[in-house]
């Protein structure tokens, strides 16, 4: 019995000595720094990768949760639904990569071995990797590296996402503006049938001054009837093309602003009565209303202007109307005038109404007649009404008929002389 025990002890001692000898050989064959390096690479790098994947997965999960809540309440958009599908795919991929990393980690460590050139085999030495305690220096380093990597990934992703969103928003806004503009124009044309004629043939991509000039010229095509009575631009555009200069100017402004989107068009005017040599308008209707169609007498006048340029739509002129302004807003009165009203202008004209038209006479002739009548009053008080009626008759025929006034003056002088002789 004692012999058998001694044999076992010798065998155990021999085996122990053999193992110790093998380990010493291994230590001599393997530099310490190589073991340390493999230990760090084998432990630190997989942890960093695992934490990166974990952070990414949490990021995806956080965003996906918000979209899932929206989907649950029925408020998710088609874009949100598409994003949720992408996130779920990324989460599944992240989980799969985590499993693969774990599998590769264990497999590579189990097969990690250090061979000596002379005889030690892999099966004889299988070092077991021991990962340090939670919170140790290596895990803290892994956390730091993983956080840095995830932050870089997220920052790049957010920057790309923001750039993409801004680009998409810019495109969407451009499309929205174009669509809104097209809808607005279509609605304008549906509401105002005559606007189609005014905007016909105008390329709205041209510079604004070119658009306004073509719009300006298109007014000659609307069959406008110049009545000298103001109408609203809405009335004209809905199919009743009649009115006055104010109607035309306001219509020009409305189409330019509401259809073409051209802003800062103003309506200007002359508020006092004036005499004008503007000539015939390009529209149907009234001809020049003063001195048998030779000139106009206006109580006021309106036109549009933009960026310093004149758009006188009544005369289709880019020049300001030349005006011989009346010296007063309200008419003067005289018993010599057919309707007892008249205006005196700054350039020496007397303008007076005859029914629905006007006529003019030089102020010098008018003053002579007034003075002559005043002087004759003391001699012909009984026949003064007859003289005044005769003067009115001459004015009514034509204020510029100087021969008629001269004839009247000679007749009155003759009557005066005859009266003086009779008194003697």
Q: Nearest-angstrom radius of gyration?
A: 53 Å
Number of strand elements: 13
- Tell me the number of helical segments per DSSP (H or I, 4 or more residues long): 11
Through-space gap between termini: 200 Å
- What ranges have pLDDT less than 50 throughout 5 or more consecutive residues? 1-13, 25-43, 107-131
Work out the oligomeric state of the chains in this entry. Answer: single chain
Main sheet characteristics: 4 strands, antiparallel
Range of strand content: 5-15%
Protein described:
The radius of gyration is 53 Å and the shape is rod-shaped. A hairpin with a 2-residue loop joins β12 (349-354) and β13 (357-362). The model is unreliable at 1-13, 25-43 and 107-131 (pLDDT under 50). α2 (32-72) packs antiparallel against α3, α2 (32-72) runs parallel beside α4 and α9 (363-376) packs parallel to α11 (402-423). The strands form 4 sheets. The chain has a 4-stranded antiparallel beta sheet. Strands 2-1-5 form a 3-stranded parallel beta sheet, covered by helices on one side. The protein starts with a helix and ends with a helix. It has helices at 2-29, 32-72, 78-110, 137-191, 195-199, 208-218, 233-237, 245-258, 363-376, 384-397, 402-423, and strands spanning 225-226, 242-243, 266-270, 274-276, 284-285, 296-298, 301-306, 309-311, 324-325, 332-333, 341-344, 349-354, 357-362. The chain is an alpha+beta fold and 424 residues long.
């Amino acid at each position: 019995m004692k012999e058998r025990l001694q044999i076992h002890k010798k065998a155990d001692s021999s085996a122990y000595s053999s193992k110790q000898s093998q380990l010493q050989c291994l230590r001599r064959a393997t530099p310490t720094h190589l073991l340390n390096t493999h230990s760090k690479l084998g432990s630190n790098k997989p942890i960093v990768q695992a934490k990166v994947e974990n952070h990414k997965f949490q990021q995806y999960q956080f965003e996906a949760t918000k979209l899932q809540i929206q989907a649950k309440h029925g408020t998710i958009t088609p874009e949100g639904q598409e994003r949720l599908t992408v996130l779920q795919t990324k989460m599944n991929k992240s989980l799969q990569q985590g499993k693969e990393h774990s599998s590769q980690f264990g497999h590579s460590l189990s097969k990690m071995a250090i061979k000596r050139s002379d005889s030690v085999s892999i099966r004889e030495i299988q070092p077991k990797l021991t990962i340090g305690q939670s919170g140790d220096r290596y895990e803290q380093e892994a956390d730091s590296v993983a956080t840095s990597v995830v932050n870089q990934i997220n920052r790049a992703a957010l920057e790309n996402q923001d750039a993409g969103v801004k680009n998409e928003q810019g495109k969407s806004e451009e499309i929205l503006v174009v669509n809104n503009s097209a809808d607005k124009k279509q609605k304008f044309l549906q509401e105002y049938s005559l606007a189609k004629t005014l905007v016909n043939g105008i390329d709205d991509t041209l510079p604004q001054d070119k658009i306004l000039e073509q719009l300006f010229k298109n007014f000659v095509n609307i069959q406008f009837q110049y009545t000298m009575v103001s109408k609203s631009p809405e009335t004209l555009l809905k199919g009743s093309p009649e009115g006055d200069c104010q109607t035309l100017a306001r219509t020009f402004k409305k189409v330019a602003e509401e259809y073409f989107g051209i802003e800062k068009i103003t309506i200007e005017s002359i508020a006092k009565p004036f005499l004008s040599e503007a000539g015939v308008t390009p529209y149907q209707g009234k001809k020049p209303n003063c001195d048998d169609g030779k000139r106009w007498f206006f109580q006021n006048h309106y036109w549009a202007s933009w960026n310093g340029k004149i758009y006188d739509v009544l005369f289709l002129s880019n020049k300001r109307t030349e005006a011989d302004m009346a010296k007063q807003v309200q008419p003067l009165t005289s018993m010599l005038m057919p309707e007892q009203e008249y205006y005196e202008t700054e350039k020496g004209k007397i303008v007076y109404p005859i029914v629905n038209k006007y006529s003019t006479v030089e102020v010098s002739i008018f003053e002579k007649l007034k003075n002559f009548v005043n002087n004759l009053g003391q001699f012909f008080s009984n026949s003064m009404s007859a003289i005044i009626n005769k003067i009115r008759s001459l004015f009514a025929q034509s204020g510029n008929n100087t021969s008629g006034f001269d004839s009247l003056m000679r007749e009155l002088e003759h009557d005066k002389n005859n009266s003086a002789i009779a008194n003697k």
